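User: I'm putting together a small comparison set for a docking exercise, and I want a reference complex before I start. The sequence is below, and the ligand is magnesium ion. Could you produce the 3D structure with the ligand included, as structure tokens?
Assistant: Of course. I'll restate your input first, then give the structure tokens for the complex.
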Amino acid sequence: MKISKKATTIAIVNQKGGTGKTTTCENLGIGLAMEGKKVLLVDADPQGSLTISMGWQQPDELPVTLSALMAKAMNDQSIPPGEGILHHAEGVDLIPANIELAGLEVALVNSMNREKMLKQVLDSAKREYDFILLDCMPSLAAADAALIPVQAQYLSAKGLEQLLQTVQKVRRQINPKLKIEGILLTMTDSRTNYGQQIDNLIRGAYGSKIKVFDQTIPRSVRAAEISAVGKSIYQHDPKGKVAEAYKSLTEEVMANAEKQLKRVAERGR
Ligand code: ADP
Ligand code: MG
């Protein structure tokens, strides 16, 4: 029996801004591509931060973005393979976004509807890629798993609780298979006691319920620069600690996906 390829789809989510979602999406995605995987990144944020960060500085001028594809799905129009997909020099593909996505969100008043449209857009892409990574919130319905970057310095326990409740709700209402890939501590500073305390606090509070990645992403000025240069951390600061951290996160995510695929294959036999 020929098993058609089906991408592992991971939504990088946290309703809080500035926790490292976009940075993680880009560098985990390019990390996976460097390991030989076929990767599609999807910018699902009307601000287009991922699109800009990957070098398309004027997302408002792009002819086809995620909102156009979702509008087509909404109107039951077919989407030709590859439509709207941009190719980045470091070997990943990107469905870009711009402010039009905000307008579409208003049009699709029911947010569950919006999530279904995104799922429909991705359904055909799922056969073409090993991994699809989604930057931002309205993507949980279309995902196999949620990866949650948390900025260690500004841990908001309430915010995290809220997010976990959202995951539960999506599971109940629309996507029962949704898993939590893990909490990723970002912009950590292990040199200070305070940083270490926060790390311990999060592991203590959530570690028994949810996976907290062993690998954390350290804070570095070089990492903060990459969105302006349109490159990944592997190009911009290849020997730095953030490149090393994202590389090892990549390996962990790949190993998890392989385990999961094996489990599914065994069940199917
Ligand atoms: P989000 O997508 O969750 O809003 P971003 O990935 O855009 O978060 O990151 C928020 C800000 O922090 C950006 O200015 C980004 O350049 C910066 N940043 C992200 N990761 C790091 C890091 N490891 N070290 C230092 N700055 C970082
Ligand atoms: Mg972002």
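The chain has ten helices and eight strands. The first strand starts at residue 8 and ends at 12.
User: Thanks, that's exactly what I needed.
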